């Protein structure tokens, strides 16, 4: 069995930043503005919700940056939870990630990619979308078995294309499209009058956080990042800050081009057959070609997020297996590429099952609450490690300590409470999914690791 020392450190700072940006920049930014507008009823509050979600993600990235500097090993949050709270919490986190969190996200991105392709090719049989999604999971899982250096280069290329598409949309909206919405809709002086309550605002922030999700993935491949104790925190801070800026700009672009009524009418669970808000914005300066432009853009964006998720997420079961807390086969590396290929391929198989079942969206909704519970625990661990390991080498210490970690932990706690009240069933099911891992740990994996 190969050991972690044989993992290849083939990811530099550029590749690491591309992983952060590429994992976050999926499909949410093209879609979420409409449902957020329905939730809060004000374009101004929608913009504020995007900014708050971005700042919350940035406080998380700053907090995780110190953890990444302290533990630059494969596994990310699994490592932080294990070092701070022991095997039980880390196993339950990994259990959730392995069976639902990671493959569910991969399945969602794959089906999303195929769905957006349908906007260009117009498939006659809906099952074609599912089978294309399956094919994409197989293809990119195999590509990610070749080498981490190769996977990193693919991710840089796709992420660069995605960012160029985003900037094209922003530029076109501000400088080429007709101005119909901005002046009459964005007004920060009316926020008090438009305010519907904290629970509504919290729901809008939670929707935006889905579009920011993925900022925590880079530490999972920290063991394969060159000079990881320096480049992991640096990439996290640069990547999330960059996303915050472009997300704010593109949402301002939506409201610059479109009246609020058009954004309310865009694609969401309320109007599932409508075009996305980003497509309407592109049509403002490209006409009907805007439909094709955004279909291609969202296809590439979802594909890039899927690739980055496959690359990073497979390192969690690898790290668990290496510690004796999961199936031993998952810790084995390819003799040719030094990649945990069994972890990558089995992750892909589970994603395929979820894609074929059509249950991935519902399952990932269930684990949103659980994921933020673990985010909060990782935030608390920064304070714990400052006291337990005061003299440990840290190339980066979180700026504004302890204020920044406290803000992140507090906001995560408020979101958890809000989610319990607004989505009690989903929250309970998410906790049940995690709890199902306890018997497996107690009666099997826990005894093996001992």
Question: How would you describe this structure to a colleague?
Answer:
The protein has 450 residues and is mostly helical. It has a single domain (4-449), classed as Amino acid/polyamine transporter I, CATH 1.20.1740.10. It has 20 helices and no strands. The longest helix is centred in the N-terminal third of the chain and has 35 residues, at 87-121. The chain is globular, with a radius of gyration of 21 Å. The two termini are 19 Å apart. Residues 1-5 have low confidence and may be disordered.
- The share of residues in extended strands comes to under 5%
The ordered string of helix (H) and strand (E) elements is: HHHHHHHHHHHHHHHHHHHH
Number of strands: 0
- How many independent structural domains? 1
Rg over CA atoms, rounded to whole Å, is: 21 Å
Instruction: Indicate the CATH architecture.
Output: Up-down Bundle
Contiguous helical run count: 20
CATH fold node name? Amino acid/polyamine transporter I
Shape: globular
The profile of the biggest β sheet is: none
Helical fraction? over 70%
Averaged pLDDT: 90
CATH class: Mainly Alpha
How far the N terminus sits from the C terminus, by CA atoms, comes to 19 Å
Low-confidence stretches: 1-5
Structural class by helix and strand composition: mainly alpha
- Which superfamily, in CATH terms, is the homologous superfamily? Amino acid/polyamine transporter I
């Amino acid at each position: 069995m190969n050991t972690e020392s044989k993992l290849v450190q083939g990811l530099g700072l550029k590749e690491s930043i591309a992983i952060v940006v590429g994992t976050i920049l999926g499909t949410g930014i093209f879609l979420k503005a409409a449902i957020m507008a329905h939730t809060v009823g004000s374009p101004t509050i929608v913009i504020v919700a995007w900014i708050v979600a971005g700042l919350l993600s940035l406080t998380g990235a700053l907090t995780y940056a110190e953890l990444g500097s302290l533990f630059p090993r494969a596994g990310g949050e699994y490592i932080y939870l294990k070092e701070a709270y022991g095997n039980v919490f880390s196993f339950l986190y990994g259990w959730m990630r392995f069976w639902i969190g990671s493959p569910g996200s991969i399945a969602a991105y794959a089906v999303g990619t195929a769905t957006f392709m349908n906007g260009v090719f117009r498939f006659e049989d809906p099952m074609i979308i599912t089978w294309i999604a399956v094919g994409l999971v197989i293809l990119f899982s195999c590509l990610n078995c070749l080498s981490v250096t190769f996977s990193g280069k693919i991710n840089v290329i796709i992420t660069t294309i995605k960012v160029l598409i985003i900037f094209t949309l922003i530029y076109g909206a501000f400088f080429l499209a007709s101005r119909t919405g901005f002046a009459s809709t964005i007004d920060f002086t009316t926020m008090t009058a438009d305010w519907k309550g904290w629970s509504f605002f919290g729901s809008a922030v939670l929707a935006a956080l889905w579009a920011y999700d993925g900022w925590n993935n880079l530490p999972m491949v920290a063991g394969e990042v060159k000079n990881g104790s320096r480049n992991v925190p640096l990439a996290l801070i640069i990547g999330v800050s960059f996303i915050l800026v472009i997300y704010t700009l593109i949402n301002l672009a939506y409201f610059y081009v479109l009246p609020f009524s058009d954004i309310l009418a865009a694609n969401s669970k309320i109007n599932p057959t409508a075009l996305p808000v980003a497509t309407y914005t592109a049509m403002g300066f490209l006409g009907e070609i805007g439909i094709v432009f955004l279909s291609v853009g969202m296809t590439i964006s979802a594909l890039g997020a899927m690739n980055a998720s496959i690359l990073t997420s497979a390192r969690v079961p690898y790290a668990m297996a290496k510690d004796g807390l999961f199936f031993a086969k998952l810790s084995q590396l390819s003799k040719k590429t030094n990649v945990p290929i069994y972890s990558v391929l089995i992750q892909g198989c589970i994603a395929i099952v979820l894609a074929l079942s059509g249950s991935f969206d519902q399952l990932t909704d269930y684990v949103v609450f659980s994921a933020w519970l673990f985010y909060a625990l990782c935030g608390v661990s920064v304070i714990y490690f400052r006291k337990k390991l005061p003299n440990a080498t840290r190339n980066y210490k979180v700026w504004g300590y302890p204020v920044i970690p406290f803000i992140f932990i507090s906001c995560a706690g408020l979101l958890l409470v809000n989610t319990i009240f607004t989505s009690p069933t989903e929250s309970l099911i998410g906790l049940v999914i995690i709890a199902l891992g306890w018997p497996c740990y107690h009666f099997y994996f826990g005894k093996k690791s001992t």
